[in-house]
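Checklist before submission:
- one chain only
- standard amino acids only
- sequence pasted in full

Submission:
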Amino acid sequence: MTIDVTVVAADERSADRDVDVDVGRWERLAVDVLLDRRAQGELTLTFVDTDEIAALNAEYMGKQGPTDVLSFPLDALGDAAPEGLLLGDVVVCPAVAAQQYGEHAGTLDDELALLVVHGVLHVLGHDHAEADEAEEMRALELQLLTAHHWRSDPPDGFRLVHSDDPGDDHGGDPAGDPADES
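Returned file contents:
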C-alpha cells in the first residue's frame, strides 16, 4: 500500500520574527510523523504571530491570550482514506515557544519539534483530556521525537509537560473542534 502524504507549511508571521523558523525542517518532521502513523492525506502547518494565535484561541477555544499550538482536524479519519483527504491544520506560535521552552522541552529546537508532533497527533485524533489518554499521547510524542527529531535518546532536560502543570487539564475534541496546546 502506498501512503500519500502532503504537508503544506508556511511562515505567515508579519511580526514576532525574533525566532528563526526553518519551515522545511518542520514540514519534514510533520511528514515523518504522518508516515510513521500511516496517515494519508494533506495537512497544513502554519507558523503565526502571537496576535493571530490569540485570535484563533479566542474564536475556537474560548480562551484569552496566545497559546503555543492549535490543531484543527478537518475530515473524519477512517481505515480507507479517500484520495485528497484533508487531515487538518496545525498552527504554531514560535514566539510563545520561545517564552516557554526553558520550563517545558528544555531547548527552543525541542520545543518547536514537540509542538509540531503534538499538533499533528491532535489532527490524527489523539487527545489528552483524560489521564490515560495523556499518558498514551505523551508516550507516542516521545517515541516520534526519538525516531524523527533526535534520532537517538532524548537529551537531558527534555520534558513533555510544563513544570508548573499540576496535571493535564486542557483538551479538545478530536472529532472536529480544534484541539488545544501542549
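Reviewer check: The beta strands are 5-11, 41-47, 69-73, 86-92.
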